Amino acid sequence: MKIVGVDIGTTTIGMVVVEKDSLEAVEKHTIPNNCFLPGQPWERIQDVREIVCRAKEALDQILSAYPDIAAIGLTGQMHGIVYVDRAGNAVSPLYTWQDGSGNQPLSDGRSVCNILSQDCGIPAATGYGMVTYLYHCKTGQVPAGAASICTIADYFGMVLTGRTAPLVHISQAASLGLYDLRERVFLREILRENGANPDLAPEITDDVVPLGTYRGIPVCASLGDNQASFLGTVRDGANTVLVNVGTGAQVSVLSERPYAGRGVDARPFTKDAYLLVGAAICGGAAYAALEQFFRSYAAAAGAPDVPQYAVMQRLLEQQPDQTEALAVQTTFLGTRENPHETGSISGITIANFHPAALIRGTLNGMAEELYGLYRVMREQAGITRSKLLASGNGVRRNEVLQKILSDVFDLPLTVYPSEEEAACGAVIAAIAMLNDITLEKRLGKT
Asked: Could you tell me the residue ranges of all domains in the chain?
């Protein structure tokens, strides 16, 4: 028997088919999710129907190829929201985790994030679903007929199973914001006081439960992709710090208690465990931005307009002094605490002002930003780990970044070899739904 895991990411939709008993992957499939729609300059929205169509078509092909699929696991990009009506149909685009509505000034000149911080004492970041929802409430943009909100993976589960209302796992619910970690409920009074209808908050479950069935196959409630990636890669949760570098980047550790500090938040995972997460918003996008810089210059100089990653790698390999680097702060997209923060490049001299030093400095900056977040966990929450595990294509395909991460964290580094980590985590959740394993045992807690 086999399990299929589906991960609806920001740029790709990944699927993996896994043997239920051996946990060996027998097939992996990735399709592009280039479904962005035009909108306001601060919006980052995607076409829900196109995403669902692509994901469902790929899933149907897998189910036809493997008639012994026993369960379907789901995960996907966190924080973003889809509005659904009482019949369970989407009535809006997907407002993704990159959406900037929460930072837009309202009639009094303050943003939703400002209001929540100053009036309610609640740290809030743009891109979190409840922040986006409050912005829509205050600007009259909540779609007519909206009865609930959920993430895109939750909505895909609704489509598959025919549910008319979302059922959201705590890992996804907390990612929407305005959520009480200890009581595991949304802050309904805060929503009401700010002009929102708290009844649009979805129903929550703290367990991996079936949403229903699709083609007779049970479908598991969606996990947040951060928790799913941790579940899919980490075996020794008590001793491992996980670094993931993709479009963004995160550093994550398992904890028995919630902790929130500068740049770090606690995300519900299992009934009695949390994932402490420090998120670098730019992450791998910093390296991609540098590649675009070199690519645009090369094209302007008459070279083919092709990716420059191989050239960048060659420059690093041929660099005479492989410790020489410019000082690069890679907060090109700001931080959760300060979205207006910018990046910087310093330490430039005539002698070191060349491409390799800039490339190496950018990689250093990416690693140092993640280590700074881990240092907050270590120094303020008393958490230390002895193993460093890295995942995500941004680090898997970059041996120089691997070495830099090991040096910066001062820990031996293991790179998780397989792609589609989050989809693999969704598979584990689906197996847990079938009562064949517990999440705690998988994480090495029991």
From this structure: 2-221, 234-421+438-446
